[in-house]
Specification:
7-stranded parallel sheet; alpha/beta; Rossmann fold
């Protein structure tokens, strides 16, 4: 990260709620200024910005945008840089997640899942590459255990996250030596807001995790903070934060972890 006295500015996508909000709070506690991106959760985004600005004035702003749409990643990149006159880091967290059984996949599902999980991060990273290089900055992509261990019924989501894993390593090569690019791959951290995974499936996942418990959003936020701020000699790496699940188990066909 930049070593000037001015606080680093970080853009976190999908930052209004859940994991994104926890990452944002954690980075703010480390002294960063935050650009809080959101798509639909305007009230939550504005409330989070107000919370952070109450702790430290003029330390957080919000930007809206659908990163799956043409030209929007570039517009968000421009606005993020203008907010503080610099940008030192990017966290690609925004993501759609829903089942797509083979036979039911359509263009709308493709646009949503590939768009949010792969296309958006690619074009946003591309738009910010020069600024991040000038700041010796970093990109963190939020992946998923299912990027490497596919989940039945979610083939398109798994393919999108696998693409993001490959993009993480490719960008590390393309943007070296001035921009570090890493990924964080969560396990059972936060379940979806809907009823995609009933209690019995959740229990089975936890039982098959080495640490025998669910993780917490703070676990992911801490890993992101480390890779952004405290790992100047780490790039092209994927850090699994999954309680050891990926170390020795395949994914049950009917179960999933989800951030």
């Amino acid at each position: 990260m930049n070593t000037t006295d001015e606080a680093p500015a970080i853009l976190v996508t999908g930052a209004a709620r859940r994991l994104g909000a926890e990452i944002t709070r954690n980075l703010h506690a480390a002294g960063c200024r935050l650009v809080i991106h959101y798509r639909r959760s305007a009230d939550s985004a504005h409330a989070l910005a107000a919370e952070l600005n109450a702790l430290r004035p003029d330390s957080a702003i919000t930007i809206a945008g659908d990163l799956t749409a043409d030209g929007i990643p570039e517009r968000v990149a421009t606005a993020a840089h203008a907010a503080f006159g610099r940008l030192d880091g990017l966290v690609n967290n925004a993501s759609d997640f829903f089942p797509t059984p083979i036979g039911d996949i359509d263009n709308a599902a493709w646009d949503a899942l590939i768009g949010s999980n792969l296309r958006g991060p690619l074009f946003l990273s591309q738009a910010l590459a020069a600024e991040l290089a000038a700041r010796n900055g970093a990109i963190i992509n939020i992946l998923d255990v299912h990027a490497e261990r596919p989940l039945r019924g979610y083939s398109l989501y798994c393919a999108a996250k696998a693409g993001l894993l490959g993009l993480t390593r490719a960008l590390a090569v393309e943007l070296a030596p001035h921009v570090r690019v890493n990924g964080v791959s969560p396990g059972a951290i936060e379940w979806p807001d809907d009823d995609q995974f009933p209690p019995a499936e959740r229990k089975a996942i936890v039982a098959s995790t080495l640490l025998q418990r669910e993780g917490h959003p703070a676990d992911i936020a801490g890993a992101v903070r480390f890779l952004l701020l405290n790992a100047p000699y780490v790039t092209g790496q994927i850090l699994a934060v999954d309680g050891g699940r990926n170390a020795h188990l395949s994914t049950p066909a009917s179960s999933a972890e989800r951030v």
